Amino acid sequence: MAALVFVETLIQSSVLALLLSSWHLCTFHIGLYWMISSQQRYRNGVCYLVAVNILLLSVAFLYIHLSSFRKSHGVARYPLPDKYQLTEPYLCINIHGDFATCERGSCAGQWKPPRTHHCSVCGACRSDFDHHCPWVGNCVTLPRLKAFVLMLSLVFLGFIVGVMPIASKLLDQISLALLVSRTDEWAKETWWNWTPAWIFFGGPFGRYFIGTAIGYRILKEARDNLDSTNNQIINQPHFRVVVIVGLTSIFAIFALVLAAFTLRRILRGETTLSTLPPTSSRSTSIIEVHPLKPGERPLDLGIVKNWNTFLSYPLFNPRRTSLYIWPRLNPTVLRRIRSSKRLNTSPSINTQE
Ligand SMILES: [Zn+2]
Ligand SMILES: [Zn+2]
Hints:
By secondary structure, the chain is mainly α. The protein has a domain at 83-150 and 263-345. 52% of the residues lie in helices and 5% in strands. The protein has helices at 2-38, 42-67, 145-163, 167-183, 185-192, 203-226, 239-267, 303-312, 331-339, 342-345; strands at 101-102, 110-111, 117-119, 124-126, 129-133, 138-141. The strands form three sheets. Strands 1-2 form a two-stranded antiparallel sheet. Strands 3-4 form a two-stranded antiparallel sheet. Helix 1 packs antiparallel against helix 2 (42-67), helix 1 packs across helix 7 and helix 2 runs antiparallel to helix 3 (145-163). The longest helix has 37 residues, at 2-38. The radius of gyration is 27 Å and the shape is elongated. It binds zinc ion (2 copies). Pfam families: DHHC (PF01529). It catalyses: L-cysteinyl-[protein] + hexadecanoyl-CoA = S-hexadecanoyl-L-cysteinyl-[protein] + CoA.
């Protein structure tokens, strides 16, 4: 696990470095040097600077929040309840109505309430677990989903706003670099007519990517003779700009897709964990005394209530209670359990109202 934590620390450092590079590119090169200083579009430049800084700083803030308190946030430490004292149907793991416990690491037989999962990377049982996110190097839990979805949406929005002023210029520069590369004798000989270029470095796509990079290299040599100003990297084709925009575009699309999937699960009353195939240790996946029907979601309260529950969590510092609060069950599932004949034969669940 130490190796995994090390890899995650590397990922986190890279994400923060990319965020910092994007902020630097947007604030100084696009906003200040290009829009305001070179093009003298003062009002647009100031609006752009304000918008892009609010968006990127919010992303950074949410990212740091989601990465923090890895050892302590949402760690489930509740005493094992007495099943004979419970008066409402509850989620359990077997026909006797027993509760799941965790025997791993320092958990040492402690209770795993519904929706709790032992994260092997963090080494702790986490309440309201959704998934462990290697990008933030931490578990994402239900109380933190709001910050998570907001961060993903702002990543996409930040990318669109950040790139908007230079999008068409950048596309022109890329086509120019490609054209220069395809017509240059040296580039043709060493890259375009070299057969392995079709196979290595990512196939035909990689062939065009490296071909374009060669074009940028040729343009750089020409540029260095003409343009000596350091800060004007938007006016002339600079490969650094393409790399930062390219990498952030991958993140932005990934974030948008992930946000959409997460929102879908929230509205269905599911977590990433509950959509995985059941195992005997997941108390959230089955009510064994009254087995669930295929596809039945016991914690789905309907789209409106699921959405309201999602919104009810504070964005930061979700409340922790010392007593465990049982999750509400889906009314249809509850009705079916209450009217079930097996109710009377099961000593472990008493459903008196
Ligand atoms: Zn555990
Ligand atoms: Zn974790």
